[in-house]
Amino acid sequence: MSSAVPVPRPGPFRPAPGPAADEGLARRLRALACTAPLHDLDARKVNLAGEYGTYAMAEVALAAIDLVTLQMDFDTGADHEDVVSRLLPRVAAQAPGRPAAEHERVARWVLENLINVGSVDRGFRAVYGTFGPDGGYVRRDYDFKLVEEVPGPGGRVYLRTTDEAVNVLVGALDTDVTSAQIAAEVKLEVLVSRGRLADAQLAAEQARYRTVQYAETLRRTLEATRRDVRAVDWLHTVPDLIDEALDHVADRYRHENAILTNIRRARDETGEDKHPDHKLRAAELVDIVKDCIRRHTQLQSRLLEAGPLFRAEQDRQAFAPPAARVGLDLYGQLLAPLLPEPLERAARVTDAFFAAGSGLRTPAAVRLSDLTDLLLTPPAPREHLGAEMPEPDLVATPDDSRFSEEQFAAAHELLRLPPDAPRRLSGLLADARRRDPELPYLVALLAVHAASPPVGTAYRQGERQLLFAVDDGTELSDEGFGGADLIVGTALLDAASMAAARSEAAS
Amino acid sequence: MTDTGTEAAPRGTQDGPAALTPADAADAARLVAFGLQPKLVPARDADYAELLRRHRDDPGFARLTDAVAAGLGLIVLEVSARAGMAVTAAEDSVFAVRMGDYARRAATDATDRFLHGLAHLAVAALAFPRPEDLADDGYIGRVSVNGVDAFVRQTCRRLEERAEEQGENTDPATDAPGLEAAWRVYARRSATGATKDARRLAGSTTGIVGKAVAFLVDSGFLQRTGDESGGTFRTTARYQLQVRDMAGGAALTELLELGVVPVSDGTGTLLPPAGDPEAELADGAGLPFHS
């Protein structure tokens, strides 16, 4: 696949060589070709006998395609005459002074040209060129139809729009071409899909900057509101900002989740040996997009708080009874007029403010006798431990545990099974009974406990092994116990991989 | 605790200080001493609260207290349960804070001296953004170190833009640094800087503002509420009194002596521009819609 392309291209930098890039180019050339018949209509209208310059043929053609598309269902299409009659109001609106017969002629001409009645196969052809895998330049023909005629029930002919027409003229053209946001997103998707991850990372970082800017603007707005509600335009500017930001969040969130899915796939599907740096970059990109999503969530919660905060501040500031006195406007009357002044003059004002505004300090007064005493006193040993504690009166509690330490030790020794040799509970009980008549109870308890082993705890504590018990349906035949004859064994835990999993989960 | 009553005349009579005992004088001095500890809150000290109550109810005692304060070189701003015995140092009092003691560099360097003073003014301006806030006894302002710096910087930027529009050359003459515009001094100083230990660079503007708020906390004027934005603080009743009754007036008087007459109709100047969005009022002041 990645054989060298011998045809040299101008410039030292050749973006994304190979068939992958050409494929995207070919796809877009094909899409572009689909619009050509529409441009052609306007170019060829001068050849019609008569004065047809006032009609916008491309507009009529797009309207026709929309009409046909909307009337399509699974088995029939749109009726030819029906489409023409529905087109007439639009055509008539373009040239109201002309006779109705001419309007009908225009509508019919447009529809026929969309079907391309004059050609043999009733379709269009565009020529484009690509570089083949061997590096040779190949010209290719692309045949397509926009509106095709299909047989309907009862032998009638219906019109249907082709997939090309729907994809390009109905779907792809219906986009806000001025939106920088959409352009950035499309760019990122294209970059990622072609493996251009370095550029994709740059684009993602820029998207994050935009998000941060939104959050920062909002934060400053809310801060200003808290200070003075009237300093911020809550009638238009802020609601607009909030709406815009909420739209932004909704849109970006949906989109970045899609990107995340795609990049994750790219990260996981990129071969380790072929492009290790791609994999690394994709992983970085995943981190960035994750961070973007986190920031969106933060931004959204702040946006939702904005309204209540405004109302609370409005209540507090605007509806509070006005103060009887009018205070000094520190900003407008002091700070703002002060700053344009020369330093020498301004410093006099700030000096006055400081002298009167700094409050008081109690001066430290030292008596000489105190000072000599202080200097001559040896440092007192510091009382780290505080006051002496009274001796606690302890009452020995009777040892009421059912099993002794030795019994626990014996039971654990019995249950210290090699990981590759689990044992039946019945055998363990028999062994235990030989040592101590009380021991089987303890062993049975431990075995039953092991039927639901604390895997989570062992996992968190990084244990290397864990006692477990499984019921395989065998009945326990024992003189003292009934129930299932559990299989008791030791499971080895992979401590290293658990640690790795933990650190991954934490990240 | 207090020996009221034995010789004291019935309250409200004009018997003069003769009716007061040395014990009353001691109590009055004690109340002033409480006032000298600005971080002490009356609600947390029963003795303090009791003396305040007595100051309110007993005009003779109140006069005596005021006299003790005046003799020490103190000005009584307010005596109330919320602010306590709010006293401040009179000019040339032993309790007054001198700029040279406050910041050593400020004693010799005019630029630093100005910046330290400006930091105090800016903290107050942001803590009480509207004239009503300064007048309203119940208002509690909130400031942060980074917020104060950003607010002053934005005002400076507006002035810089205006100077550029008018084609002024704002570079000061080499031999007359004192003629440099004040906003340029602030704008020139870096906002922050790296230090060997992780502390704020003392000479940076956030360092200077940080020093101002730390000083105000020690003066019982601000209370720390959090660490975000370089430290966030809320104002106390004492700070409002100090700014309203002392500092604001003193600075305004000085400004008027310089021939600058700021005119105000009593409403705040931090307003959205009316009609013309590019109008010069409001001056941004850290607000997003005027930058």
Polypeptide structure, described:
The complex is a heterodimer of chains A (507) and B (291). Chain A folds into 3 domains: 19-172, no CATH class; 180-317, no CATH class; 405-506, no CATH class. Chain A has 17 helices and 8 strands. Chain A has helices spanning 19-44, 57-71, 80-94, 100-115, 163-172, 180-193, 197-227, 237-269, 276-318, 330-338, 343-357, 368-376, 405-415, 425-435, 439-450, 455-461, 495-506; strands at residues 78-79, 124-131, 137-144, 147-151, 157-161, 423-424, 465-470, 487-492. In chain A, a hairpin with a 5-residue loop joins strand 4 (147-151) and strand 5 (157-161). In chain A, helix 13 (405-415) crosses helix 15. The longest helix of chain A has 43 residues, at 276-318. Chain B folds into 2 domains: 19-89, no CATH class; 99-261 and 270-290, no CATH class. Chain B has 10 helices and 5 strands. Chain B has helices spanning 22-35, 46-57, 59-72, 99-102, 110-127, 131-135, 145-165, 182-188, 205-218, 237-257; strands spanning 74-80, 84-89, 142-144, 222-226, 232-235. Chain B is elongated and about 70 Å long. The model of chain B is unreliable at 1-17 and 271-291 (pLDDT under 50). Classes of the chains: A mainly alpha (507), B mainly alpha (291). At the A-B interface, helix 7, helix 10 and helix 11 of A face strand 2, helix 4, helix 5, helix 6 and helix 7 of B. Chain B: Residues 1-20, 269-291 are annotated as: Disordered.
